Protein backbone atom coordinates (compact mmCIF):
# COMPACT_ATOMS: atom_id res chain seq x y z
CA UNK A 1 0.00 0.00 0.00
CA UNK A 2 2.72 2.36 1.04
CA UNK A 3 4.85 1.72 -2.07
CA UNK A 4 1.83 2.21 -4.30
CA UNK A 5 1.28 5.60 -2.73
CA UNK A 6 4.93 6.50 -3.24
CA UNK A 7 4.71 5.53 -6.88
CA UNK A 8 1.58 7.58 -7.28
CA UNK A 9 3.28 10.58 -5.71
CA UNK A 10 6.31 10.20 -7.93
CA UNK A 11 4.11 9.99 -11.00
CA UNK A 12 2.48 13.27 -9.98
CA UNK A 13 5.70 15.01 -9.16
CA UNK A 14 7.63 14.16 -12.30
CA UNK A 15 5.55 16.24 -14.73
CA UNK A 16 5.62 19.13 -12.29
CA UNK A 17 9.39 19.19 -12.11
CA UNK A 18 9.54 18.94 -15.89
CA UNK A 19 7.41 22.08 -16.13
CA UNK A 20 9.59 23.86 -13.64
CA UNK A 21 12.92 23.45 -15.36
CA UNK A 22 15.01 26.61 -15.61
CA UNK A 23 16.13 25.92 -19.13
CA UNK A 24 13.14 24.61 -21.08
CA UNK A 25 13.71 22.48 -24.14
CA UNK A 26 12.89 24.68 -27.16
CA UNK A 27 11.25 21.65 -28.79
CA UNK A 28 8.91 21.15 -25.89
CA UNK A 29 7.53 24.63 -25.17
CA UNK A 30 3.73 24.57 -24.77
CA UNK A 31 3.09 28.11 -23.62
CA UNK A 32 4.93 31.42 -23.58
CA UNK A 33 4.17 34.26 -21.19
CA UNK A 34 5.22 37.88 -21.44
CA UNK A 35 5.60 38.84 -17.78
CA UNK A 36 7.07 42.33 -18.15
CA UNK A 37 7.09 45.02 -20.82
CA UNK A 38 9.83 47.56 -20.16
CA UNK A 39 10.03 50.72 -22.28
CA UNK A 40 13.73 51.50 -22.15
CA UNK A 41 13.67 54.42 -24.57
CA UNK A 42 11.19 56.45 -26.59
CA UNK A 43 11.33 59.60 -28.73
CA UNK A 44 10.36 62.52 -26.46
CA UNK A 45 9.96 64.90 -29.39
CA UNK A 46 8.27 64.53 -32.76
CA UNK A 47 10.57 63.81 -35.71
CA UNK A 48 10.37 67.51 -36.65
CA UNK A 49 11.46 68.54 -33.13
CA UNK A 50 8.05 69.71 -31.92
CA UNK A 51 6.44 68.56 -28.67
CA UNK A 52 4.02 65.62 -28.85
CA UNK A 53 1.45 67.76 -27.01
CA UNK A 54 0.78 71.36 -27.97
CA UNK A 55 -0.14 72.36 -24.41
CA UNK A 56 1.08 69.57 -22.13
CA UNK A 57 4.47 69.14 -23.74
CA UNK A 58 5.85 65.70 -22.98
CA UNK A 59 4.24 62.55 -24.36
CA UNK A 60 1.83 60.28 -22.50
CA UNK A 61 3.28 57.00 -23.62
CA UNK A 62 1.60 53.64 -24.02
CA UNK A 63 2.22 50.62 -26.20
CA UNK A 64 0.08 48.06 -27.95
CA UNK A 65 1.16 44.55 -28.81
CA UNK A 66 -0.20 43.84 -32.28
CA UNK A 67 -0.26 41.07 -34.82
CA UNK A 68 1.75 42.83 -37.52
CA UNK A 69 0.15 40.77 -40.30
CA UNK A 70 -3.51 41.30 -39.44
CA UNK A 71 -3.14 44.55 -37.49
CA UNK A 72 -5.20 43.01 -34.68
CA UNK A 73 -4.44 44.36 -31.21
CA UNK A 74 -3.36 41.61 -28.83
CA UNK A 75 -2.91 43.86 -25.80
CA UNK A 76 -3.36 47.62 -25.35
CA UNK A 77 -2.09 49.71 -22.45
CA UNK A 78 -3.79 52.92 -23.53
CA UNK A 79 -5.59 53.19 -20.20
CA UNK A 80 -2.30 52.63 -18.35
CA UNK A 81 -0.22 55.24 -20.16
CA UNK A 82 2.76 56.96 -18.54
CA UNK A 83 1.86 60.64 -18.52
CA UNK A 84 4.24 63.50 -19.36
CA UNK A 85 7.30 61.31 -19.71
CA UNK A 86 10.66 63.04 -19.34
CA UNK A 87 14.25 61.85 -19.75
CA UNK A 88 14.54 60.85 -16.09
CA UNK A 89 11.42 58.67 -16.13
CA UNK A 90 12.93 55.74 -18.03
CA UNK A 91 12.54 52.83 -17.85
CA UNK A 92 8.74 52.70 -17.94
CA UNK A 93 7.78 49.28 -16.60
CA UNK A 94 4.60 47.23 -16.95
CA UNK A 95 5.18 44.55 -14.31
CA UNK A 96 2.51 42.13 -15.56
CA UNK A 97 0.92 39.86 -13.01
CA UNK A 98 0.92 42.79 -10.55
CA UNK A 99 -2.51 44.21 -11.44
CA UNK A 100 -2.25 43.75 -15.19
CA UNK A 101 -2.44 40.19 -16.52
CA UNK A 102 0.50 38.40 -18.08
CA UNK A 103 0.16 37.90 -21.83
CA UNK A 104 -0.15 34.19 -22.64
CA UNK A 105 0.45 32.48 -25.98
CA UNK A 106 -0.01 28.87 -27.02
CA UNK A 107 0.80 29.42 -30.69
CA UNK A 108 4.07 30.99 -31.69
CA UNK A 109 4.16 31.71 -35.41
CA UNK A 110 2.31 35.03 -35.47
CA UNK A 111 4.35 38.06 -36.53
CA UNK A 112 4.22 40.50 -33.62
CA UNK A 113 5.34 44.07 -32.94
CA UNK A 114 4.82 46.81 -30.38
CA UNK A 115 3.26 50.07 -31.57
CA UNK A 116 3.87 53.15 -29.41
CA UNK A 117 1.48 56.08 -29.01
CA UNK A 118 1.15 59.39 -27.22
CA UNK A 119 -2.26 59.28 -25.55
CA UNK A 120 -4.32 62.42 -26.10
CA UNK A 121 -7.50 63.22 -24.20
CA UNK A 122 -9.97 62.70 -27.02
CA UNK A 123 -12.58 60.02 -27.19
CA UNK A 124 -11.11 57.63 -29.70
CA UNK A 125 -7.71 56.05 -30.09
CA UNK A 126 -7.48 57.49 -33.60
CA UNK A 127 -6.76 60.88 -32.04
CA UNK A 128 -3.59 59.64 -30.31
CA UNK A 129 -0.25 60.37 -31.94
CA UNK A 130 1.54 57.37 -33.38
CA UNK A 131 5.16 57.46 -32.19
CA UNK A 132 6.58 54.42 -33.97
CA UNK A 133 6.91 50.65 -33.81
CA UNK A 134 9.49 48.10 -32.82
CA UNK A 135 10.89 45.58 -35.24
CA UNK A 136 8.64 42.61 -35.99
CA UNK A 137 9.31 39.31 -34.25
CA UNK A 138 7.86 35.84 -33.74
CA UNK A 139 7.83 33.83 -30.54
CA UNK A 140 8.96 30.86 -32.65
CA UNK A 141 12.22 32.64 -33.49
CA UNK A 142 12.69 33.59 -29.83
CA UNK A 143 12.07 30.00 -28.68
CA UNK A 144 14.45 28.65 -31.33
CA UNK A 145 17.13 31.10 -30.24
CA UNK A 146 17.23 29.30 -26.87
CA UNK A 147 14.24 30.48 -24.78
CA UNK A 148 15.92 33.66 -23.47
CA UNK A 149 14.44 35.39 -20.42
CA UNK A 150 14.88 38.87 -21.93
CA UNK A 151 14.51 40.11 -25.50
CA UNK A 152 15.17 43.69 -26.60
CA UNK A 153 13.15 45.05 -29.51
CA UNK A 154 14.10 48.26 -31.29
CA UNK A 155 12.60 50.46 -33.96
CA UNK A 156 14.31 50.84 -37.32
CA UNK A 157 15.93 54.14 -36.25
CA UNK A 158 16.59 52.82 -32.69
CA UNK A 159 14.67 55.61 -30.94
CA UNK A 160 12.26 53.05 -29.46
CA UNK A 161 13.70 50.30 -27.26
CA UNK A 162 11.40 47.83 -25.49
CA UNK A 163 12.64 44.92 -23.42
CA UNK A 164 10.24 42.06 -22.77
CA UNK A 165 10.62 39.42 -20.08
CA UNK A 166 9.50 35.92 -21.04
CA UNK A 167 8.53 32.78 -19.21
CA UNK A 168 8.14 29.35 -20.82
CA UNK A 169 6.02 26.37 -19.92
CA1 LIG B 1 -0.27 64.56 -28.61
CA1 LIG C 1 1.34 65.15 -22.10
CA1 LIG D 1 -0.57 63.44 -25.02
How would you describe the overall organization of this protein?
The protein has 169 residues and is α+β, with helices and mostly antiparallel strands. It has one domain: Immunoglobulin-like (Sandwich). The protein is 14% helix and 31% strand. It is built from two helices and nine strands, in the order αβββββββαββ. It has helices at 2-19, 139-144; strands at residues 32-41, 61-67, 73-76, 92-95, 103-105, 112-118, 129-133, 150-154, 161-168. Strands 1, 4, 5, 8 and 9 form a five-stranded antiparallel beta sheet that branches. The chain has a four-stranded antiparallel beta sheet with strand order 3-2-6-7, with no helix packed on it. The radius of gyration is 20 Å and the shape is elongated. The chain starts with a helix and ends with a strand. Bound molecules: calcium ion (3 copies). One calcium ion binds at residues 52-53, 56, 59-60, 118-120.
Q: What tags apply to this protein structure?
A:
single chain; 169 residues; alpha+beta; Immunoglobulin-like; five-stranded antiparallel sheet; four-stranded antiparallel sheet; 2 helices; 9 strands; elongated; disordered N terminus; binds calcium ion
Q: What oligomeric arrangement do these chains adopt?
A: single chain
Poorly predicted tracts of residues = 1-21
How many alpha or pi helices? 2
Major sheet:
5 strands, antiparallel
Amino acid sequence: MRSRLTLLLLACLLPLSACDTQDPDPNNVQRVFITEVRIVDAPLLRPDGDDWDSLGGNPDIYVELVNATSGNIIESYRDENFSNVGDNDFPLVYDLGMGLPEIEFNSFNGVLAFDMYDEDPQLTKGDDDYMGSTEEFTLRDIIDSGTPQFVSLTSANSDIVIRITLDYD
